[in-house]
Design goal:
heterotrimer; A: alpha+beta; three-stranded antiparallel sheet; two-stranded antiparallel ribbon; 5 strands; 40% helix; C: mainly alpha; rod-shaped
Amino acid sequence: MSDVEGLVPIVEAALLAAGKPLTVAAIGALFEEHERPAKEDLQAALDEIRHRCEGRGFDLVEVASGFRFQVRERYATWVGRLWHESPQKYSRALLETLALVAYRQPITRGEIEEIRGVAVSTNIIRTLHEREWIRVVGHRDVPGRPAMYATTRQFLDYFNLKNLDQLPALADIRDLETLNAELGFDTLPMEASPTAQAAVDDAEQS
Amino acid sequence: MSDVEGLVPIVEAALLAAGKPLTVAAIGALFEEHERPAKEDLQAALDEIRHRCEGRGFDLVEVASGFRFQVRERYATWVGRLWHESPQKYSRALLETLALVAYRQPITRGEIEEIRGVAVSTNIIRTLHEREWIRVVGHRDVPGRPAMYATTRQFLDYFNLKNLDQLPALADIRDLETLNAELGFDTLPMEASPTAQAAVDDAEQS
Amino acid sequence: MPFAFVMGKAVTELPKDLYIPPQALEVILEAFEWPLDLLLYLIRRQNLDILDIDVSRITEQYMQYVELMDAMRFELAAEYLLMAAMLAEIKSRMLLPRATPVEEEEEDPRAQLIRRLQEYERFKKAAEDIEELPRMERDTWIATAAPPPIEKQRPAPDVDMRELLTVLSEVLKRAQMYESHQVQREALSTRERMSEVLEKLSGQQFVPFISLFSAREGKLGVVVTFLAIMELIKESLVEIVQTENFGPIHVKGRAE
């Protein structure tokens, strides 16, 4: 079965029935060997399907675990009313921990705490585990052999990402001099300030 | 929101996200009161959606509890393979039961239990029946009149045996280690059974 | 709008500096979730100069907090104190004239703090970015349709004869341990024939003994059948009936 037109309804039927993302390989596996379409044909069918979704209430997207149909964001207002509970909110502490794991993986709890300047609650780690957003990928070879965390495919799927590269770019580390000026610090190094009056005047009105 | 064109994507998004049939009233309830479309408009939107499903892998159907998208039956062959389960393994208890029926037939469940030292679940008997490997050949004339089981033609066929005589003799089995050594079998990778060997090849030659 | 209530008093604005009323500590730290966050806020929004801190007042507050710790969230208070101590240390080092040039290699404590704050800020922003990402069950949902009627195709498990023999040998060994089950070598053909005979008898009243034999099987077949019937009689599975001497023998399944 290599004609793309014929593949389209089969592929969309499978994606809708699956209820989870399907990889191109998984879609190919739905065909018996003698009729299995080439990867390029499946890809072409997927392109055609995406094209046909234009202007519809749903779209074909590719996330880490494969392709899936999903509701277009602009209809979330109405679709969200299907469920009585409002969507789960995640605390800033949880999101910051998740961000650290996402951008700095593999990372230990201690390393997260060092950057956040506060203890990471066991609850947060447990919640992230239960959601299957993070997993233990090893243990750091230091005393106590703390677990190192990394994010999962489910994390990427949940946040509509294909891979970690699609995460929003991390802010640049600004040049220290600029930052000092911005924060109202005196110019470094300290030799310049022989007295205690290193404070900058503009800070005083606060 | 009464223009049907505008309703179409919202309604289809809701139906696709719901994962269950939705009544016209339930769809209407997704809109705030001031924007709630008339029933006729929703109906018109549903008609339009059904129309757009023509030639696609799915269709909009009305079932007892409302409207839902459904994958077209003609794609069941491919879609069904999504749930293809790889064959599981029979439990140890089932294999023991089968072996005892083969070697000690006709045998009742109680007798099997006596030898095994544990109860035989009804499930095991049912599975063996469904596989058509055992059959009831009579009932023992004791209280309860328990069924006596024997193996079937299908059992012999499956194991490539012409008759039960081709099964290795019990005496040989009891000294499997020797038998294996004699027959030069490789060790079978079976959990917790270093003696996992026997004589299927032997049976085939005889 | 009051930002929080502390001991009945409305707190209407966020703190302008580090001198947080002890009673408000928990509320305020919770609003910021943690001290680094608060410090960042103070520096950015309130133009707090980390050098313009009265060390003696900070020290005084330490003591107050230590006294209140029992009643408050210990960890948060501790975090706060750590931060305050860090600031006090920076301040005190800035106050001291540099003793020797050797210390030049030592990093400016302010630079350390700035680096930390900046690093923290990056991830604070990253968390906000993640929060904004279109997310399942909030911004989008997976689209599904009911699958068509599907024939359940679960292939039956494979069984290897060796596997079967292995479990049998083990169960027999086990049985011997439970009780002295005599497992003797026996002709399986007899047991097979026993099953066949029983099946022939099932549902019937009396079957002529003769009909159980088939000449086609030859002598051996007849012997096997005979042995099977004998075994069945021994196990009380069949009954033999002969109404008169030398009359036809009938066999009947006892249980049927």
